[in-house]
Amino acid sequence: MPDLTRPAGDEDVIGGVQARLVAAPRTTAEAAELLAATRGLTVVVRGAGTKIDWGPPPRSLDLIIDTSNLTGVVEHAAGDLITIVRAGTPLRSLDLGDQLLALDGPAGATIGGTVATGTSGPRRLHYGGVRDLLIGITVVRADGKIAKAGGKVVKNVAGYDLGKLYTGSYGTLGLITECAFRLHPKPQHALFVRTSAPPADAAKVRAAAVAPAAVEIDSASGELAVLLEGTAEGVRERAGLVGKLLGGDISDEAPAWWGEDPWAPGEIGVKLSVPLSAVPTLAQGPDFVRGSAGTGLLSAAAAGITEVERLRATCVRLGGHAVVLTAPPEIRDILDMWGPVPGLSLMRRVKNQFDPDHRFAPGRFVGGI
Known about the structure:
InterPro entries: FAD-bd_PCMH, FAD-bd_PCMH-like_sf, FAD-bd_PCMH_sub2, FAD-linked_Oxase-like_C, Oxid_FAD_bind_N. The chain has 369 residues and is an alpha+beta fold. It contains eleven helices and 21 strands. The strands form five sheets. An eight-stranded antiparallel beta sheet has the order 17-14-16-15-19-20-18-21. A five-stranded antiparallel beta sheet has the order 7-8-12-10-11. Strand 15 and strand 16 (223-230) form a beta hairpin.
């Protein structure tokens, strides 16, 4: 579709691979026409680019589909605590009145990119992650056909739970154009309890039945921070209990490191997952880690391949795993970013079912999918 595509510029690069064309469809229907008209071209979807350097580079790249024109709230059913939002909408731009989409993300991150990478921030402990909050999805398949599932749609397509399949798929199954989410009432008040208590003390918070929204640690600063949300009176009471329990200070400001990746641009960023009982062991190791002491999902910056291998071995020994999200090109090209992943054969079958010609982000996912 010549009216939708333009020649790629010098900035239209994914993982060091230069695209030939860029298109920015305005609607799901336009996106469907675009994909049907460009069959045979390999595609990478780009939102705001906050996570565009995550994962290996694509094996080939003909067309970037830019979602910057797919923005806005399609519907907000306040009485049902549901919203439908287009994929290119910046997460932080959502204004849903006294209701909340409880997903945290970096400045500029889009709805589609958040779902495609399956990312969620500190408040995942209380509200759940993307898979918990996503109740419906609209996608355009590689052949240009539109598929919808969940939300107000009666049935899923071909028996698949499309929302769960597309969450964390890194854009390898098709183009997400709209998402339906479960909402929550916006908390009236929030306080942080900040302490230098050891990471093991997070277990005291979980056992105290104070319903924290998040319990985060940062081993570089030696800080443990607890977020409490709710009514003003209830939050003050619970914050007081946590403050006495941990010996911490109560503040209405989050720590500077709260919700931020621990790596700088150009460094190796690693996502870690371990059982809750293993979080103190990981936090007391030689690497600085940051993340949730309530869910066992943390992150770290690694100085090189040796450090990655050590982190991965430690996580496996503790019953978890480690995935490299981003790395400099000279590291990324020789490093197994995903590590051993169970169910790879099933993932390959799903990829072949949804994208038989391997048009979408070829090579960006587990096992070169």
